[in-house]
Amino acid sequence: MTIHVSPEACPALVLNADFRPLSYYPLSLWSWQDAIKAVFLERVNIVSLYDTVIHSPSFEMRLPSVVSLKDYVKPARHPAFTRFNVFLRDRFQCQYCGSRDDLTFDHVIPRSKGGLTTWENVVAACAPCNLRKANRLPSEIKMFPHQAPFAPTVHDLHNNGRAFPPNHLHKSWLDYLYWDIELEP
């Protein structure tokens, strides 16, 4: 019997050489094809396997569900300033009203008044709040962000990312995720 495996099926959790995920949000995953390629190039160790087997005319292998890099990759010290990372820092909610719908971003000090597009001046905002605040200073309209904007560390973003787990977590991944969260009594 031949099993056809789609690229989305059976992703492999990718761990650094210290057995921590390379990234929590988005979770560091490779397609099964990329995982197999890394195995053959001897860049990773297989930590756990799926029951799914792939076949070629001369080869048979169970798909890896968890792989660890052989060489440690030093994590970035400073996260990239992106819209996604601003939303993640702000926990995907408007910093003015708390809504999670229709998010965009807002310059706390408007660009027209000298505000820069930086971590310290940009917050997640829903479209209605962004339109209402418009081109005004927070003090002019009495709209202040719940949390002052700041440049997050990679650790800050990882902590926030844990609150938004992916839709699918394979049971073989659970032993390698969230090692550094506080245990319940």
TrEMBL record:
- Give start and end of each HNH nuclease domain: 81-131
Name of one Pfam family that matches: HNH
**InterPro entries named among the record's database cross-references:** HNH, HNH_nuc, NA-targeting_endonuclease
Keywords, ordered alphabetically: Endonuclease, Hydrolase, Nuclease
Question: What SMART domains does this protein map onto?
Answer: HNHc (SM00507)
Question: Which top-level group of life is the source organism from?
Answer: Bacteria
User: What GO molecular function terms would the record report?
Assistant: endonuclease activity; nucleic acid binding; zinc ion binding
Protein name, please?
5-methylcytosine-specific restriction endonuclease McrA
* The species this protein was found in: Devosia crocina
